[in-house]
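Table S4 entry, Kynurenine formamidase.
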Amino acid sequence: MTPPPPTPSLDAYRNLSPQDMELQVSPSRWSPDAARHDVVAAYVARARRDVVACRARVPWSRRHVTPTVDEDSNITMDVYGEQLPAGSGLVVYIHGGYWQELNQDLVGGLMGPLHDAGVVVVVLGYTTAPHGTVSGMVREVYRGLQDVRKLREEKKWQPAVIVGWSAGAQLGLQALLHFVGEARGDGPGGGENAEEDGGSWVGGVVTISGVFYLPPLVDTYVNAALGLTSEQARQLSPAEPGNYQLLPAVLLPTTRFIIATAEHDSPMFREHSDVYAKTLRQLFSSVHRHEVLASDHFNIVADLAEHQDLFLQRLLEFVREFSSCTSSSS
């Protein structure tokens, strides 16, 4: 009799040698294209071209995120398709880059096909390391989400779908936890409308090759610019119980999730996504684990610029689900 597969575990890789751990946290080394060219450089070049092409045909603007008293006012967000009418879909995108690379000008061209389908896209910026800290980035993304919530209410768009790629998944999920104070009545929302403050404006969350558990990164090259301690890494991990158990305080039970990975992500990335999806199923009614075949950590998002991309079509179906739900309940 064949024994059952081992239960996925966040700490299954903790006894790896330093060299093997470096391999697990190096997405480019798992790409089938790694032997032929620099995978990261190829992504950057393609993303830059696709952003330029998208901005040439899609109306967009860059605006400053509302500052707080003790934080700077240089954080921006890019809004694509703000002229789209009430009832349009809304995607909020948070880029990756291990909290130290990339920016809003290197997110690729996913905004183009989404705009063509009648979806507004907001790309959030944040201060990458070494100038920014991971906890500071979380606060900046939270500020961006606050502004998106206000803009959505003003424009009467559909509930937002928050999409985070790689480190962007961690930032988005942790930023949502900052709404807990509002939902409880001791934050900016004051609790006067706890449901709206708590997250009914968010319809769904899509993580793409997400980073949910940071402790394995502490002793690798990734942490050189971040300077995280083991305790900080745990506190900033969406997969930590003290974090994911707070999500129901800020998101409705009907919030939908897609936890996606690339076929050629590292085994650790994929297993952590398995664990996180299983965890979310204990809290929310719709959690789908999705693997994008014939893709790696980089082209899984770069290919979203192509209208025929199957994962793009899945994302569009996901966004449209909220339009049908809203119509049926109105």
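DSSP finds twelve helices and eight strands in the chain.
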